[in-house]
């Protein structure tokens, strides 16, 4: 089976289940030792801005109450450094936990919450929304605590400014990260943002502090500190003028002082370069319209960057290349390997030769090895305050580039005469991440996670560099990883982007475009959005029939996948008709013993099961299992699937002991091979619980069902049909245990959810009506029971 087909044909098990119920995660634990997670070292050379620091202390005192505040202002004004100082001062309180979260986007937010989860001992089986909520609750129950939310520049992530159109653009399953911000007692939350709307939306207007320019004395102190030299009386006037020209912005001052120190340039010489350059930036910014560049970046910062970069261009070609490639990647958590690859990157173009053609004295070429060259280049970038070390929590080295440095580089590359460079560096970023991002699997999940945000950012520039298909292929691998981790919202975004790129580049009827359609449909199916999945699958099937013909394997695969969705929609007869046709075609074209033919037998048996034709289902399942044993070996996932299907049929036939033996074995094998959180493993858990329920072992069934429900909520979400099935199962167990009121409450919720998601006429909805009627009858509410019946 090809990897494409394996992905397209992923489906959630549809065998009969008892219906399982609700569970409340208990995330609270006894307060223990304080935890500190801050990704940056303390800035020992910070210039105190006493008025701002005093105001933060006033707004966020250590008290019994919850409090929040925000620092907002221009990029480069020093917000993060002020927040970092506050975080480290709170660390001096022996009992206080301090956490730092990058709030740039949903992925960085989630990654930092995962790191916090490890430190706090949150259960390792949690992911997705459950993990985010678990971290929130765990922080809230461990006072006192401080949370820094840095670079919250996109306030829409936190629900600010959402309109109906925004909701449509973001997708109806988009999430407001504001739901996961801790708000417990004895806690303080400090935001940093460039968006002044944070005042009045995420924090009260009176609790928002505008971070403006430095005072003259503060600016002078910072300049002398970075330059590591006390200003002489002769320089005082020139330095004051330079600081004014730099708009008294800390980032611009630091970069200017670093350059002057590194190159032994005089303040007067630097001033002349700065003034001339700022005029050019003003003209350039007025002419640029690219959506990625139209950000408010100070001309002072742009030119301080430009002066330093021109020097690097002469002095160290490798530093120049590293930094420009990273203009098109994420600015946080840059792994050392990514820096190394950027240092070594080269294609067959003459772009870099042209950039450096006037400079044959590249000092980096004298290095003894690639490693020495990279190390030297990193040191130069740190000298010029372009790159800084960032803690990762796993002992590995990572780096950070200031957002404004990235934006400044992209502004610079926007000049007409630098279009070749822009294309070269954006293409390099995409190709490097593509080479580092592995084909997913549990053994490389950590590596995938390390490069996820960089892959997302690099793919944003696919059209700019003409690498749409490279990006589409990378997004497909990213999608596979997100599927395995149960991150459905992110996977949907990756699939939609890949489909859009292929559709634009290759056209509607290219086979790769159709494959992307089919992948997106599988994602919708996995999200429980069966009607959306159906529409796309019908279209993909029509296209494949038109282009490939009725008997091409890809066409047959589309038929099989459409049947899976019909089955999920409760349209068993339509599913049966297609599955019978698919089986006949595969027997004709591929033969009786081809794995795809055997899969069709097994799929058809599942539908026979749902139609109550258990003996027919059993016969096909026994045959499919025997063929798979012969072809695939003992521990292949398809063999385990056949075992589980057969056990479910034995259950339906009342052969409970045989069902139990096989299903327990299938569950053990799935745990070993697929892991605890794979949907098939959870399905086996639910099935084991169903058998225990049938055997009257309801207390055992309850424990397993509660665990299965928790896992499904984590992996699939609260409104996925399989999660709702687990809720129904726990209600059935409560009914059997005589806990009728609890059973009623859950069954009412289950019925409402099924009516909303599956519709009034879906078999599961009708089953819920009958089940609720039975509980009403047990409660002596015969009139209510009769209405439902």
From TrEMBL:
Pfam families: AAA_22, TPR_10, TPR_12. It comes from the Eukaryota. Residues 69-169 form the ORC1/DEAH AAA+ ATPase domain. GO terms for molecular function: ATP hydrolysis activity. This is ORC1/DEAH AAA+ ATPase domain-containing protein.
